[in-house]
Design brief:
The chain is α/β, with parallel strands linked by helices and 328 residues long. The protein has helices spanning 45-49, 58-65, 71-92, 114-127, 141-144, 151-163, 184-198, 211-217, 224-227, 239-252, 259-275, 283-304, 312-316; strands at residues 18-25, 28-35, 104-107, 136-139, 167-170, 204-209, 230-233, 256-257, 317-318. The relative contact order is 0.13. Belongs to the CbxX/CfxQ family.
Length: 328
């Protein structure tokens, strides 16, 4: 999802508290970031931000501040920055500062900001010298899996080569394991595991997808869990956050939602949340609604102003009749 489309300022109602757990597993740090009811750890970010070396993080901070919600994710990104900054200081002081594994798993429903956060993380790693380029290669099953024996391995190796110096982001990664032992997806998994060893510290692999499916996927290869020490849960947006996102999406396109339109959209989202068993609480769903409403507005204006041009305000306004919302 486009980062600007998720932009926002200010807080939201019902913001969940977070807990960030660090579990040592085979001498590798496992960061599990998720929503929870436990109290937050007291991180003295204000003191760290007073450090002159924090300047390199300011661009990253600005992008994070524009995102609606995702408070636990923002805290995690800052922890990564703090860890890298202190690691540099330790190295300068002659202390042990060994290499760290940054391969990650992003869990959550579609449209909850996983790709946007991956791009921000890539920039952070580039600024801090972990990655040489900081680019992001986004792929899915079709980009990795070939049509005959050996084809998949070559396609996968080629994509790994393109991602060196940056991040290889595999969306719906669990689809690689759906075909069973004889499916070429298994060949892609095996090739990725080998590439992580052959190109250690040269690229970062991020697997993304629904939480349950990703958890199942991680069990398909015994070498996978230990190679992904960072697992992050992306929560669904609340209704209020989705409304905030919709207003920002309209604003960046030079449109405004009438108060009545906002109420209509909010009721629709509430109904969908109560009536559907499928996950909808994400910004991609709202983006589709806004884009359809813009098209409906265009048809309405052409019909109403067949002999002239609407005024500027009318060209910008999305009314309730433009939000033709479908229920499942």
């Amino acid at each position: 999802m486009n980062g600007r489309a998720m932009a926002a300022g200010g807080g939201q109602e019902g913001r969940p508290s977070r807990q960030i757990n660090v579990v040592l597993r085979n001498h590798t740090d496992l960061y599990s970031v998720q929503g929870g009811s436990a109290a937050e750890a007291d991180t003295p970010q204000t003191q760290i931000k007073d450090n002159p070396q924090f300047a390199m993080y300011q661009d990253i901070q600005k992008e994070l501040d524009e995102l609606v919600g995702l408070e636990s994710i923002k805290d995690f990104v800052f922890e990564i920055y703090a860890f890298l900054q202190i690691a540099q200081m330790r190295a300068q002081a002659g202390l042990v500062s060994g290499s760290h594994v940054y391969h990650m798993v992003f869990k959550g429903n579609p449209g909850t900001g996983k790709t946007t956060v991956a791009r921000i993380v890539a920039k952070l790693f580039q600024k801090m010298g972990v990655l040489t380029k900081g680019h992001l290669i986004e792929v899915e099953r079709a980009d990795l899996v070939g049509e005959y024996i050996g084809h998949t391995a070559q396609k996968t190796r080629d994509l790994v080569k393109k991602s060196l110096g940056g991040i290889l982001f595999i969306d719906e990664a669990y689809s690689l394991a759906r075909g069973g032992e004889k499916d070429f997806g298994k060949e892609a998994i095996d090739t990725l595991v080998k590439a992580m060893e052959d190109h250690k510290n040269q690229f970062i692999l991020i697997l993304a997808g629904y939480s349950e499916e990703i958890d199942f996927f991680m069990q398909t290869n015994p070498g996978l869990p230990s190679r992904f020490p960072i697992q992050i849960e992306f929560p669904d947006y609340s209704i209020d956050q989705l409304i905030q996102i919709s207003e920002l999406m309209a604003k960046e396109r030079d449109y405004i939602l009438m108060p009545q339109s906002i109420l209509k959209l909010k009721q629709h989202l509430l109904d969908e949340k109560n009536d559907t068993s499928q996950a909808f609480s994400n910004a991609r769903y709202v983006r589709n609604i806004i884009e359809k409403s813009i098209r409906h507005q265009a048809v309405r204006l052409l019909n109403q102003y067949s002999t002239g041009s609407p005024g500027k305000l009318e060209l910008m306004t999305l009314r309730t009749e433009d939000l033709k919302l479908e229920t499942k």
